[in-house]
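Render phospholipid-hydroperoxide glutathione peroxidase in 3D.
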Amino acid sequence: VSTMWLWRSSAVLSLVGSRGVVRSMCAQVGDWRSAKSIYEFSAKDIDGNEVSLEKYRGYVCIIVNVLAEMHASYAEKGLRILGFPCNQFGGQEPGTEAEIKEFAKGYNAEFDLFSKIEVNGDNAHPLWKWMKAQPKGKGTLGNNIKWNFTKFLINREGQVVKRYGPTDDPSVSHNYTFPQYILVHSVEYSTF
């Protein structure tokens, strides 16, 4: 398993709230265009259990590559990372689900882990197709994910709020400060 996985490979859903280890698949592959929020999608955990993203209703989410450091910084506010490994970028994630899970354990990664998916092309996971098609989920040079670490900030209603590029850090963004979003919305929703 590539040691770059925690830092470069995968596509990850960071969530404010919730726990568990998960994998990916949409309930109705052909329906992704009509979805109104992420709550209409389901995913399989790394152990093969089907999980409805409805479970994350009311939580702020970031869909991004694995950010164990960000998770550690904001876990007390309910931040959770859901990792979707992806091997579409230079073959950086060739391992099996079992190898990926074992590797993540070695780094004491405490985020939800999904099985490997594709984020671009005909076989892209429906959730990723949907996020890229949302008004605030569109990319600068087209909607394809250009490389690992493209991130999507999802509000508590399951809507895409912002898309960050591979090198953008949501925790220090000058246009949309992630820490303020967590603090403001955690008070507003009286969740924490």
